[in-house]
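Q: What would this complex look like in 3D?
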Amino acid sequence: MMISRPLSEESFQERPDRILATELSRYAGKDVVLQGWLHRKRALKSVAFLILRDRSGLAQVVVRDPRAMAEADLLGAETVLRIAGTVTENPQAPGGFEVTSPVVTTLSEPVAAPPFDLYRPTVPATLPTILDHAPVTLRHPRLRAPHAIAAASVAGFRRALDARGFTEIHTPKVVASATESGADVFAIDWFGGEAYLAQSPQFFKQAMVGVFERVYETGPVFRAEPHDTARHLAQYTSLDAELGFVADHRDVMAVLREVLAGMTEAVGEGALDACALLEVDLPRVPERIPEIHFTDAQELIARDTGEDPRGEPDLSPAHERFLSRWALREYGSEFLFVTGYPMAKRPFYTHPEPGREEYSNSFDLLFRGLELVTGGQRLHRYDDYLAALARRGEAPEPYAGYLAAFRHGMPPHGGFALGLERWTARLTGADNIRRTTLFPRDLHRLTP
Amino acid sequence: MMISRPLSEESFQERPDRILATELSRYAGKDVVLQGWLHRKRALKSVAFLILRDRSGLAQVVVRDPRAMAEADLLGAETVLRIAGTVTENPQAPGGFEVTSPVVTTLSEPVAAPPFDLYRPTVPATLPTILDHAPVTLRHPRLRAPHAIAAASVAGFRRALDARGFTEIHTPKVVASATESGADVFAIDWFGGEAYLAQSPQFFKQAMVGVFERVYETGPVFRAEPHDTARHLAQYTSLDAELGFVADHRDVMAVLREVLAGMTEAVGEGALDACALLEVDLPRVPERIPEIHFTDAQELIARDTGEDPRGEPDLSPAHERFLSRWALREYGSEFLFVTGYPMAKRPFYTHPEPGREEYSNSFDLLFRGLELVTGGQRLHRYDDYLAALARRGEAPEPYAGYLAAFRHGMPPHGGFALGLERWTARLTGADNIRRTTLFPRDLHRLTP
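A: Here is my prediction, written as structure tokens for the whole assembly.
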């Protein structure tokens, strides 16, 4: 009596009677079932073409029966269909195969048309329209593609680090005080008290070096920057890594090089169709990414551009672009490490450069003209933290939880953080980072 | 001039002069370097033993030189050490090998002792002490182990779904309205307006079925439940999956079975030492997990326990334990699906059971006496959503962003959510879910 309808063997796999759109060529002459969305329909006098979209791609279905043609004519865009038919070779069909003699069943009907035709090769809509209607506009193959690339990228990030003895961690997104930087935090009503959304897992990942030596996290971070630009998001996905027993920041850079190679490789394997659609030119990650010290970079800029940035504590966006072009020209590399940024512009936990304490064992990674990753060696001695805070005129008490790890023996360590959306935007050439975020959150946007 | 100190070949790998504690047996007779923490020291009259801990485990270092013994005597627990010495076979040493003739270098000194001895086999501290000092107490092998198991579990979750055509997504953790359930949400000051921390990625993952058909997310969710119990956390890690083109909830259960098998397998591969230390008895995931309908479960309880729960809309914890014992006895399974819960106790988006509309196409998965996973088939037609909201006396307007996906053709779909910490707690037999969370957040705890 008790076990009603036990699970059949078959149900442990995808229902065997369904194939995917891109698998047609394997079933020439066979009867198959497809399921997906009505992407497009075209009616001629004696034949109608239905283009079905599923997660794999598109398939052409040919309707010749007059009654079926009349029924097909009534189907709205995005109707969810089950199509049973015969796979037939046709050199004119996309992919060389199509489905003929179809029996078309409607699984679910739309109640409204999408805000624009999803089948058009380009997207005839402004970014606000795209974002306002994200649940349907993301179905457009060009708008979906960046997210397939993002998913493959994260898989590559994890695979590269898993292979190197890293452990994945999950850290709090709610913290008692805003330690990363005083401003730009979101306040939360925490059971009647006040708390803040975490701006980064920085302190937690450092503490976890004491436990697992090598850790990473792929999770959301929150920045309450009131900037309405193409580059700012209030929530983004931070790919964070931290490792102990480094000699200095160069050991961190070496791991980052492997991570970038792993991400690029994973995108090439796992999101090939998306890359082809968006004409993504995957970068070659050199065996050795060229690097230049901040002071040398300033000299180079002074020598070659007529400007003189020496004495400035940071690089301007224009100077980052100049340096990227220089690295491409001189070393054939789309990546460039700039090392040794002045301490004045780095967080208090940054390790200074031995012998030149006004500079730091830190780096930015420039990729195609923009900063993609920030990282470096951190302080690891408790007394150095107290001194660093004192130098910045900050009391140690709000940092007590953070500093605890360093009271109990921490090895030299360092790490980096890579913004997933920024990486995807650089790969796909997106003009706005919101195109690489499923449901962006910013100053003006909380829905959908 | 520009490329100062190019990265050496060697630095692309872990520094080759360092080996891990568990690798000693491979280097018998060789000179090696270990790095790690001083886990324990024992001084006898003419010899001192240093036990070094690194991410792989423990290694015994034998000090016989009188001056080195005197120096070792001064080292505090958790001092970070570099040890160069010779690997020597010794059947009495843990693992059969030890390091002799060591040169000991201090990399970093502690400024305080841990709140208890980290080398003791059991943990002589209360849970609040453990949590207050998490950055150092998590270094205890028994306290670290659950997190190694959690990391392996998440890797197994992803691997199982990656192999089945799922795409990873990253969704907003901040939402405009509290849709999952009215109460128990954290309010955020969002640029001067009000927003809420997301209680689940439910609506986003459903919308993404329209884009990728099969999606998953592993990320934080937030529940403002003011419960101070061993089972409640204000933030936990939810392992969410959702898939389209299902026949009903059974297709979801079939995927969940594969996921559980993948997680168990990954723990067995990737966290074997942690399992051995905690004496974790990994479950066998049956090819077919037994299932029982809610109404049949109530009848069984009435027949066998003398209680009569019929008419109740939910199962009590005691009844869940009874059913788990029953499944183990009758089917040898530590897992049991209970299906068909009354609609009254399930969220409005739940798909009713065809022909018995007061029940639902939903399920809970019981594991070792507790609910581990909740899932089911969802409504997929726009009109069904409007009707479901109307039946509950709710207006559709606050759900507009959510409902948008269903206006444009959504296939029959369903999914599930598995709480990572709860899974790890069941595996490890933890008496409190906080033992499976690195830095728990709850009614009373916001630090460290």
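A: To summarize the key features: Chain A touches chain B through 122 residues (CB under 8 Å). Residues 1-14 of chain A have pLDDT under 50 and may be disordered.
Q: Very helpful, thank you.
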